[in-house]
Amino acid sequence: MSQDYVWHGHHDNKCPIELLDGSIGQRRADIKRNKPAHEQAVRLKLLKPASPEAVEAFKAYQAKRAPLWADYQAQDAPLWADYQAQRAPLWADYQVQNKPLLADYEAKRAPLLAPILALHETECGCSEWDSETGLIAFPA
To answer: What Cα–Cα distance (Å) separates residue 122 from each residue in 15, 57, 114?
Structure first.
């Protein structure tokens, strides 16, 4: 499978070059198929192949960054584990305290959703939503 490097701006990515999982053509098709219509023109306009020089500079940066990133990950792992351990009882308490609030909200919301769910059942034609895959199955 072809892989392309492209210029890519993203709010949480400080590096403007990205290695695509496939080709730039596949990414264009993905944008047209999956992104909101009001975002597509801008996304397609900004999606540009990176020059060979930019790719080489990016690869050189990645090579220099690799040992620093590995060191960071090794030192961060126990910090993250400690945070998770300290947070676990707080999260458990939250879940216990939130359970009746959520049940009350869902009970009050049920009558509001009833007509929408009834319409869906009679008109949509799909079977149940699969919470494992996030897919909705339609009859063949």
So the answer is: 49, 57, 12
